[in-house]
Amino acid sequence: MPVETSEIRLRAGSVTLVGALALVGACAQKPTQVIDEPTWVSTPAPSDVGASCADVHSARACWGASAGAVVLVARPVPAKGDAWRCVGQRDARACRRRKGTSGPFACGDGGCVQDHPRMPDDGEWECFERGGAVVCHGGEPAAGVVAGRRDEAWICGERRGAPGRTRVCVDLAPDRPDDGSFSHCTVQQRAAGARQVCGPTKEPSLGGACEADLGCPAGAACVSRVCLPARAPLGECWQDTDCGAGEVCVFATCAKRP
Amino acid sequence: MTLRSLLLLVALGSAVAFAGCREQTTPAVWVLTAGSTSVDLRLARWEPSEAVAIARRVGGARLELELRPGFRGHVRVEADGACPSEASFEGDGAQATVVPPRVVLPEWIADVGYDRDVDVVATSGCPDAVVPPIAWQVVSGDAPPLHVIDDGRRVRVHTPSLEKALSPVRASLPTWGIVPISPRTQGKITLEARFAVGAVAATRRVQVVAAARATGVPTVAAGGRVYLFGDGWTVEPGAQGRAPALAAAGGFTEVETHASGRFVLTDSAGRRLGVRFGRYDEMALDCARADCHREVGRSVEGSPMTHVFERGLAGTLGEGYSPACAVACHALGEPGEDDGGFVHLARTLGARLPPGPDPAWFADMPRALRRTSGVGCMACHGPAAIPEPGARWSVLRADVCATCHDAPPRYGHVAAWQASRMATSDRTPETRKGECAACHTTAGFLAAIGARKEIDVPSEAGVIGIACAACHSPHAKGAGASLVRDVAVQGDFGTRPLGTSAVCVACHGGRGGATPADLPRATAARLALSPGPHATDRGCLACHGAPRDPKAEVHGAGHSFRANPATCRPCHTETPAERVDAKGQTIARRADALFQSLVRRGLVTAAGGTTPHAAERYAIAASASPALADAARKVALVHDDRAAGSHNAARARALLDEAEAALR
């Protein structure tokens, strides 16, 4: 029996060792998963709620649930190590890498400049940036250009008072330089085309950290310590005069004057 | 040991083992980016292979290796033709590496100037590596023997002189202003480098280009150089104090243009030339606004030129379509130049073109690239603002189309046309005046058919001829794949629609309401359009165009407009000869005999004019009765059509029969 016992002990130790080695081996031998990434990577956002949701810089907001108030939800991305631009909601959400799809930032000591910033489509647009959102109006088709896929990350609509003539679009997640210290950006319209200029000024911005609404840009709410547009953006106004009496245009959307 | 103890031990062993699999830390990520288009990271291999949990390949330009959780140590990545990369990982976090090619060679050496030595130098992208010996050869272009240095690690090539490059086309060029430059004259030399890295053989091509193409229109790309005819030019600084740099260049003036804006250049005789310099990506493409060129904008929406790059990526131009090769002509800009064109922007954005057709790539193309893809407005009217009114005639020159369609043998449209009489139809001053201009000049023709307003063409414009823009219009509504103008022609030309022949018949069918009786000019239309064995849907082009082969048409065959005997086969087994009549005479011989008879009888005299047309070349005597005058006219018409026997032999014989009867 002792022998037997020792044999049993030996066997028990062997079983433990073999079990461990086998599992280690199984772990080590698991082949590398090679992924040929498509341009658009399906990236569902299961936390989406309400009528509409959108990425707000590195955060994600939904409107239409919770008594109409904006809520902060999870913002999944396909992989780390790069910036992503995402469109769609819930299961229909997809993301593509930002790199290579708009102009690169050229950075110096004082800030960064991006030629060829994003526009809603291939047409002619005039844009400005405020509070971390880019708003564009226009949309006259570019002459002699084959229209491509519209950038659906922009939220677009018809400008009030100008149906069928002018569109207004808002981007809540415009490009930002890799260097996070230059995160305050403006869009400059020049004769030679638009460009985005980013500097170090610390002004409240959508997607930025906050403690209260006052720490956010006008028209934004502080939700779970992140500044998000208080109302679902519609793309309906370019300036205050597009809205009704007592309203102002905030993030391309008419809202009651505060 | 109890069974319980045994199970405990197994569980413990399993737990220890699983600890290695569980995500204890955020995995480290290694992002590798190709440092050159010659590096394809899809082919990359890594060691140790078990270190990588997920390899995410983003085209050939980017590879993301997500390491197994907890991995510590070195990882090495290799790809054919690329330098090996190594990185050390001690925990989580991300590292980024640019992977250079083993042998660094430029793809384009653009705008180096004419008559210059250019050194192509190969360097090593790897820190400790040596460039292997390289064998060079000239694949295309006019280059003297290469001067190979240091086992091919450096090679010297000499670009042709501008004078030499232009010599085949000099007679067709203007005499003043900007020198038009086409692929045929841009002094492009394609070199091929062959070398081996270890056991792997590699081939690369290097394009050395003397000059960017130029339409001759005074709106040119900033960031390169253009040439002016003659020397002694001067320029004044612009509003911001900048001005292009001018330099003499062997009877021409070289203009370096780094600043955008409008500058006025003045030649030695004091003549002024306003030139706009700009970049393709700086131009607003709002030309088709409601208050501007809306109709033109609509018409080009469906143009095959507008859609050519899209069609290529969709695969409709063949599975062998190479976007990287095609962008020189299927997109805006000059490859290798910093002109805001497609290739420049693709390089700036880090966008890598697909190796072949890829419809999804087109659909998702960045906005800046899309706006410079295809042959849009700026291809002919840009890159800067459209020329000032006084210079808009220049867009009518064939030189505009020549920037792509003058690359024989593959694209021989312009070269073939230059060999035709169409190219020199306005070589004498008389042909540019009055009603002659309607069929001898492009501007006059376009005005005559109502396509555009009459414009003044200065004498220094040189010979323009009946250029591409007379017969083709990228703007015209209803123009088919070949962009042939749809011209409304008055007259009776038989039972078939004129189709693309209408643009020919507008001049070759006579003026003022031609009829089939108007030999020679209407006979071609009658031949092509009336019922009979020679009737064909291709009209004039059945004989005067390219063989029925879409590829031949694309490559410009038929633009000499010479009747091709090959088109007569297989119906005519040999080159067809006109059948002689019962008296053993041909139409030409009969017409000549009758004409001489008319001269002898004093019914026809030479009018002394210089026009080649029968109706004007001969004067019918005022004393001739109406019947004899009619007979004389018929003889003259047949006599003047050298191809009357082919165009409409039956009709020509009938006219001669009628004339003979009247003259008896």
Short description:
The complex is a heterodimer of chains A (258) and B (664). Chain A has 1 helix and 19 strands.
How does this structure look, described?
The complex is a heterodimer of chains A (258) and B (664). The longest helix of chain A has 27 residues, at 2-28. Chain A has two domains: 41-97, no CATH class; 105-256, no CATH class. A four-stranded antiparallel beta sheet of chain A has the order 8-9-15-14, with no helix packed on it. Chain A contains one helix and 19 strands. Chain A has one helix spanning 2-28; strands at 33-36, 41-42, 52-56, 59-63, 71-73, 84-87, 94-97, 105-107, 112-115, 124-130, 133-140, 155-158, 167-171, 184-188, 195-199, 220-223, 226-229, 247-250, 253-256. By secondary structure, chain A is mainly beta. Chain B is an alpha+beta fold. Among the domains of chain B are: 18-101, Immunoglobulin-like, CATH 2.60.40; 104-211, Sandwich (Immunoglobulin-like), CATH 2.60.40; 280-383, no CATH class; 587-663, no CATH class. Chain B is built from 22 helices and 25 strands. A four-stranded mixed beta sheet of chain B has the order 3-4-1-7, with no helix packed on it. Chain B has a four-stranded mixed beta sheet with strand order 9-16-15-12, with no helix packed on it. Chain B has a four-stranded mixed beta sheet with strand order 17-23-22-19, with no helix packed on it. Residues 6-24 and 511-522 of chain B have low confidence and may be disordered. Classes of the chains: A mainly beta (258), B alpha+beta (664). The interface between A and B is large, with 59 and 71 residues.
- State the shape of chain A: globular
Percentage of residues in strands of chain B: 15-25%
Uncertain segments of chain A of ≥5 residues (pLDDT<50)? 1-28
CATH fold category name of the domain at 104-211 in chain B: Immunoglobulin-like
H and E string of chain A: HEEEEEEEEEEEEEEEEEEE
Helix content of chain B: 25-40%
| CA gyration radius of chain B, whole angstroms | 33 Å
Quick check: average pLDDT of chain A? 86
What low-confidence regions of chain B span 5 or more consecutive residues with pLDDT below 50? 6-24, 511-522
Cα distance spanning the termini of chain B: 139 Å
Morphology call of chain B: elongated
- What is the alpha-carbon Rg of chain A in Å? 25 Å
Q: What gap, in angstroms, lies between the N and C termini of chain A?
A: 89 Å
User: Which strand order do you get reading across the main beta sheet of chain B?
Assistant: 3-4-1-7
Strand order of the largest sheet of chain A: 8-9-15-14
The tally of structural domains of chain A comes to 2
